[in-house]
Give the backbone structure.
Amino acid sequence: MTSTESLIDRRQLAYIASQAADARLNVELETDGMTLNIGPQHPATHGTLRIIAHLDGEQVVWAEPSCGYMHRGYEKLTEVRTYPQVTSLVNRIDWLGSFANEVPFILAAEKLMGIEAPPRAQWIRTILFELSRIANVSLFLGDLGVQLGAITPVFMAFRDREHVLNLIEATTGGRFHPNFDRIGGLKDDLPAGFIDETRAVMKTLRNFCTEIEDLLFGNEIFQSRTRGIGVIPKDIAMQYGLSGANARASGIDWDLRRDQSLPMAWDKVDWKVWTHPDGDSFARCWIRLQEVRESTRIVDQLLDNIPAGPIMAKVPRIIKVPEGEAWVSTENPLGEMGYYVVSKGDLGPFRTKIRSASFNNISIVPWILKGVYVPDIITILASLYFILGDIDR
Amino acid sequence: MSSTDTPIAEIPGDTLRERIVDDLRTHIGADLVDSLVKPGDDVWVRVSTDAWRRTGVALREMGFEYFCFLSAIDWMPSPFGKGEDDPTAPPVERDDTVKQGYAGGETRLQVLARLVHPTLHVGVNIKCDVSDSEPVVESWVSVFAGANWHEREAHEMFGIGFAGHPDLRNMYLPGEFEGHPLRKDFPLLARLVKPWPGIVDVEPMPGGSNDEEGDAE
């Protein structure tokens, strides 16, 4: 009897002692500041972004991205090129969805010239635009797993993205840099068998989305590492100019494919703009997953009724764009991508301002990383989704 | 606020754009120097340099909460042309008259920004003159936090100062870099070393007709 009592006493004493030790330890563990350098070459940086984080223990006090490791000066280079030559430059801004970079520039030039591509060209442009989005975002979905320590999704992503790249290659001749869009239309028509092949690939991609959803989005670890992490409220997203899935994940119902009239075919088909009220990392990933699904739906519907006709409007062989200024932006895989083109009636642009999505999306990093824990830096960066070429230009 | 009864969202494009310009005029008055509403296209306004920040605040209050971009334009024609000159030949005489674009202007450098109304889906391009002798405008960072990086970029690329910006460090270039690369008088060095052969691609096609109108097919 007495022995059990004394045992309980001893246990209690031990517990109290350990609590006291912990408390003392906590006081002793008061930390000095520490600077943690991430990158410029880190798998989470999609290129060469360097992030300098000042830590206090496990928490970030401030963090500052340092850009410029891949600045290629495209705005300056456009000033010494002709209009058709610019597409080969802007292709390399967001290299995972290159065709989508060409479209807004060509549309801006067409707007200044007052011409419009024939319906068939508009249709094919939209199809290729959505294929670039699928190729781009499906890689994001795979990469997301890698950032969280899951290796399988990235193999699935590379496996299925290959089908989309094959389609783009069959049409344009280039896997990554199609350089296919021309002022007034397209370089070529679709190859034989494209429609059936694309339908099959869209089915594969929808299966891929379901696989990723089962594997990743339902996963407990994934949820606990993304839910409630890196929350961006609506007004902050607006101020920083966040666009695309990042804005829609903060509850902003805004998609440039739906909300402006462009000579493209998005308004001819039925699709949905997904938004999420949470604004956290999970919401941003989830929105992108839904967007791949919607894109496959858009492509499927567009394939049903491609109009016949020419793929090129009548344009002069030597393209001179009349004097004026034009702004055109489209909903690219990463967000709003726009070109402000100033023409002086020359063979090439006088000035081009390239508004790329990632530049704005990443400018929020110092704000969003304040106070987060070190492992969350990677998930937040992954969910914001940027491509270095799109930041530095 | 406008006096008519029609809710603003129902007004078709150009009328809405004109009303935005009128609304802005009631906010900033004579500081709205010039404006252009291009039918079916876009709005350009030019404001006086002193009213730059005030314009941002006024437009934000009018609901233009989405910060799209901020940059600058150098209107001086490049003294190097397209960089296609023969480096051994005597220098070419070029027209160097500075001619501004939409909504006019008096100075060589202009700041350009774009704000968008998130529910009306209408954007406004705002320009403002920046004097050569003292190229400084007020910073927008306290109005739109996202202007921070854009102003840093404009500062290093065009040499425009932004009064009130917390930290105008270079974004891309090394800190000790001299010159402002996107100014027109900054040469593209690669072109000076070796002339660009790119002009070849507008030569007439062999066997084709030499007139400018090509076949569409």
Q: What stands out?
A: Chain B has one domain: 8-202.
